[in-house]
Structures are given as C-alpha cells and as structure tokens.
Amino acid sequence: MEGSFRLLACLVCIVPMGSLVRTKRDTTGNLLNTEMNSAPAQRWSMQVPAEVSATAGEAAVLPCTFTHPHRHYDGPLTAIWRAGEPFAGPQVFRCAAARGSELCQTALSLHGRFRLLGNPRRNDLSLRIERLALADDGRYFCRVEFAGDVHDRYESRQGVRLRVTAAPRIVNISVLPGPGHAFHALCTAEGEPPPALAWSGPALGNGSAATRSPGHDHGHQVTAELPALAHDGRYTCTASNSLGRAEASVYLFRFHGASMASATALLLGALGLKALLLLGVLGVWATAQHRLEHPVTPDAPPRPQAQESNYENLNQMSPRGPPAAVCSP
Fold first, then answer.
1. Residue range 233-240: average pLDDT?
2. What CATH homologous superfamily does 18-158 map to?
C-alpha cells in the first residue's frame, strides 16, 4: 500500500516539459493555424486561413504570417509560395530581400499575376493573385528562408485553400454522326459550382434533362450527351449554377428519302446554270481577244477629184507658144 502511494506521488510531481500546442480559430470558426511554443525560446510557426474564396476574373489575397526563434533578424531572406503540395509543389512566386532591406525583389511571378502584399521583415508573406481563373483553384503554401543553416527556414504544411467560383460557360457544343446514320449531340460547360446541363429541342420540350457522359467530367467541366437525335431543327444546351446560366445551340438538317430526287435535280440545275454562265463569260473573253489581235483599219481616203480636174483645166488653158525653128546644116 505504501508503495502505491509513493508511485502516485511521483506521477503527480512530474512537470510536463516539451512543446505546448495551441490552435487558434478565426471569427467564423475556421482553423487558422497551429502555433508551437516552447519555453523559454520561441519556435517557427505559420498562420494562414483555412480557405479563401474569390470569383473568377477578380483578385484574391492569401494571408500568411509567421514567427521565428530570433529576437531580431535583418539578414538576407527569401519568400516563396508553392501550389499543389508543400515542399515539392511548383513555385508560383519567389522574392528575395538583401541584408537590411525591406524591399523584396521579385524573382518569379507565374504569368505576372502574383505579387507580394506583406513585408517579410515584419513577418508578413501575404500574396495577391490578379485575374483569377478556374485553373487557380487549389491549395497554396507559403515559405520563408533566412540565410543560415537548414533550420532557418519554415513552410506551412496545411496551406490555404483557394476556392475560385465562376458562372457557367459553354466550352464546346457539337453534333456527331453515329452508327446506322444516327446522330448525337455533346455539350461541355465549365463553372464552379459545376453547372447542371439541360437540352431542349424538337420533341424534347424545354429543360429536358441531359445524360451525363461518364469519363468526360473533370475538374470544373461537365459534359452531357443527347443521344439519337430523331428530328431536324435547333437543339439548345443550357448550363446553370448558383452564379448564373449560359446557353448555346446547334442545328441538324438531313435529306430524307422522298425529297432526295428533288434535291438531286436542284443540285444538277444549279450546276447547269453555273456551266452556262461560264460559257458566256468565255465567249465574251474570246471575242475581246480576237478584236485585240486583229484590229479593224479604216479605208484610205479617195484621191481628191476636184484638184486633179483643176490641174487638167489649167493645162488646157495655158497658151501654146510659136513652133520651134528647125535649122539644118
């Protein structure tokens, strides 16, 4: 019995040594970060929101602040942001600050849309992303590196989830041939939340439900198929989500049995008319060429008769002289 009391006393007297883990939450209850403190020295920590939401085409800010074990540090530092996964994900932003400088010179900004809002000298690595696209949706991780040993650097392990929302947009719509002279239509749209697709057209009514095509949906895109189009006409695909709607149309026209002969006759008539027009143009061109090669010259003007008659009259009117004397030896 006495041994049991001694063991209990020893357990009570144990003072917990090591790290104290404390979790903070923001005003909405979202997890902000897990801070690790140890007496007496402070350790590295990162503070980031669990999620940030923004609309495609606009800008988003990813907050990130940190603590480090140094009371004061003014040496060279590097700020880095990754996408996808920590430590191994591709870098989307990187800047470096020289010793004693608060200006972090940008060395990498993916597509020129990432820029640092915070001041790393003041433990702030907040990042701004311009002109958001659905492809920017994902998880991002901030990292800071001091010039020193491998322990003078830290990167967030959980990161911040960037959720990009977007109204629907029709990416592609088409009519494709199938077996047995049949046709089917495909419609692909993107948006976040992923849009719901519906077809309308001849004998379908308005808002007919579309068949989701297995294996065609990926990311923020959804594809719906309208099989076996039975009637000619206009088919419309409508995509909608909580942010809006979009629609696009395709047309289907086919030749049918009884009208095939008339369609053939119409086609031949059109070809015959084109042939006649071509022959007419060639005839006009040949005539013009002949005139250019053989120009028509006007006849020589007749000799003026009045002048010749006057000349003869003048000869007749001239006086004859006396006969010449003939001398003989």
1. 94
2. Immunoglobulins (2.60.40.10)
